[in-house]
Known about the structure:
The structure holds two protein chains of two kinds.
Chain A: H1 2-23, E1 24-29, E2 32-37, H2 40-54, H3 57-67, H4 76-99, H5 102-127, H6 136-153, H7 157-179, H8 184-204, H9 206-209, H10 239-243, H11 249-276, H12 278-288, H13 290-295, H14 300-326, H15 336-349, H16 354-370, H17 378-392, H18 410-414
Antiparallel strand pairs in A: 1-2
Helix pairs in contact in A: 1-2, 4-11, 5-11, 5-14, 5-15, 5-16, 6-7, 6-8, 6-14, 7-14, 11-14, 12-14, 15-16
Chain B: E1 6-15, E2 18-28, E3 33-38, H1 44-51, E4 59-64, E5 67-68, H2 74-79, E6 82-85, H3 97-104, H4 110-123, H5 125-129, H6 140-152, E7 158-162, H7 170-185, E8 189-194, H8 197-203, E9 206-211, E10 214-220, H9 221-226, H10 228-234
Parallel strand pairs in B: 3-8, 3-9, 6-7, 7-8
Antiparallel strand pairs in B: 1-2, 1-4, 4-5, 9-10
Amino acid sequence: MKSLKTACMAALLTAVLTLPLLGAHLVVNGLSTTLVVNLWPVGIAVLLVFVAQLLDLKARLGAITQALPTVSLSSASFSRHIRLWLAVVLVAALIFPFVASRGAVDVATYALTYVMLGLGLNIVVGFAGLLDLGYVAFYAVGAYSYALLSQYFGLSFWVCLPIGGLFAATFGILLGFPVLRLRGDYLAIVTLGFGEIIRLVLNNWDSLTHGPDGINGIARPTVFGLELNRRASPGGTTLHEFFGIPFDSLYAVIALYLIALLLVILTLFIINRLVRMPVGRAWEALREDEIACRSLGLNPTLIKLSAFALGACFAGLAGAFYASRLGTITPESFTFIESAVVLAIVVLGGMGSQIGVILAALLLTVLPELARSFSEYRMLIFGLVMVLMMIWRPQGLMPATRPRLELPTAEEAHQ
Amino acid sequence: MSEPMLSFENVHTFYGKIEALKGVSLTVNRGEIVTLIGANGAGKTTLLMTLCGSPRAASGTIRFEGEDITQRETHLIMQGGIAVSPEGRRVFPGLSVLENLQMGGFFSDAERIEEDLERVFTLFPRLRERSAQRAGTMSGGEQQMLAIGRALMSRPRLLLLDEPSLGLAPLIIAQIFQIVQEIRDEGVTVFLVEQNAHRALALADRGYVIENGRIVMSDTGSALLANADIRKAYLGG
C-alpha cells in the first residue's frame, strides 16, 4: 500500500516535470509560432516511473550492483600481474593509432588530455582533499602560456611545455597562499571565483590575448625537430620531406596522439613516485586529520600548497598540449563546465584512485563522442549517469587502494 | 641546580574572551614523569595545547631547554624535540599502522626511521603484528599505542601525553602506563595529563593539580596521592 502511494506521488511529480519538457513543443512555421501539445511522451514517462516505483526497481538494481565484483587492487594476484597488464595496455595504446580510424585517434587524443587533467585534479581533490572548482583556470594558464609565447617569441612547443606547467604551478601558489587557510565549501567558492576571474581576464585583456577572438594559428608540436605541416616554415624541415614520403595529415594526428600518451605516462610516473614518497603520504594524512599533522610538526599550509601547485602544473601541461593540438584557443574553451567535468571524472573514478580516474576520463570523453548522433541529449545522459552513480556506487568506479609497504611478519623476521 | 627542561611562567591563555589559563607556572625537569591532574574543563588540555602554540599564550613565558618558545610557530615547536600523543589519539584512520608511524618520522631519513620503527615495535609488539592494518580498524587501546608510538618516531626529548587512559579498559591502561615508565627509563621526559588521577600520581615523580585554569597544588606524586583533599576531590574518598 505504501509503495502504491509513493508510486502515485512519483508519477505525479514526473508529470509536472515532463509536461513542459516533453509535452509541449514550439513549432516555428514561417513567421508564426504555434504551441503543439503532445501528451504521448509524458504518458510514457509517467507510466515508466509509476511501474519502476511500484516494483521498487531502485532497490532491486541496487542489489545487483552491490553484487558486482569489486576489483581489489591490493589482492595478491592482481599485483603479481600488474606489470604484465601494464605492458599489455601500453602496447595496445601504442599500436592503436596505426590501426584505428582517424576519428578514433582524434577522440583518443582528446580523452588522453582529460586523463591528464583528471590525474592532476586527483592530487588536489582525491589525495589532499581540497575541493577545487576552478581547476580549469590552470588549464587556461597553460594553454595561453604556450599560445602567447609561441606567437610573440616564436618559442617551440617543447620549450613552452615546461614553461606552461611552471606558469600554472606559479598561479596555483599565488592562489593557494591566501585561500588555503579556508576549508571545504569556502575553498570551493574561492576557487570557483578564481576560475572565472582568469577566464574574464583572458576575455577582456584585448591587447595581449585578443579577447574573445582568442589566438589562432598556434604552432603544432614538432617531432624531433621535424614539423608536421604540409609546408615547412622558413629554415624548417617537415616530417614527410625528411622521410621522402607523400604528405598525409594523418601523421600529425598520430604524432599528437603519441605526444598525449607520452604526457599521460609522464604524469602517471611522477604522481606514482610522489605518492610513495613522504610528501604523498602527508597529503593523505592531512586529508584525514589536520590537527594530528600539526602535532607531528608538519606545516599544513606548505603541504596543501605543494598539492595545489602540482595539480595546477599538470593542468598547465595539459593546457599547453590542448593549445598546440587545436591550433586555436578562445576564453570560451575554459568555462566552468570544464572544471565540473574534470571534477566529475575524479569523483566518478573514485577519489584518490588513479586507475579509476583514468577509466572515468575515458568514459566521460569517449561516450559522449559515440553518442554524437543524439547529441541533444548528451548532457541529459551525462547527468543521469552521474545521479545513478552517486546512488549506487558513491565510492566511484574503482575506489582507491593505496600502495602499501608490508613489513615481514614476526615469524618471517626471525627466520 | 640545573635549569628545568620545560617551564611555564605566569602563562595566560584565552579562548575569545574566556580566560582558560589564569597565570599558570610549572616546571618539568629532565628525566622526570610529571603529571597534571584536574577535572573536566579545568584547563589540562588547554595547557598542553598552549605549549604546542595552538592557541597561543596571551602573556607569560614558556621555555623549553632554555629557549623561549612562547611565540614560535606550532610546526617549529613540534620539530624541536617535543612530541605529543593528542587527546582522542587522532591516528590517521585510513592509513596503515606502518604509514602512521612513518608520518611520525616525517623529518627523519630512511635509516633513522628503520631504527625508530624497531624501537617502537619493541615497546609495542602489538603494532608490529598490525603494521599493515588500517589504523581506524584497531581497538582504542591499540590506537593509543599507535599514537604514542607515532609521537616517539620523531625522537622527542619531551613526550606529552594527553589523557592516554581515556575510554580504555583497566587492563589496557595498566599496560600503557607500564610502557610510559619504560619510555622514561629510556631517557625521555614525560609530561602526562590525566583525569585518571590515581594511576597518574602513582606513576609520576611529581604532580600538579589544576582547577579553573589555576595550579592549586603541587607535590611529589606519592605525597599528592596521600593528601586528604586530593583523595576527596579526585580519588573518590
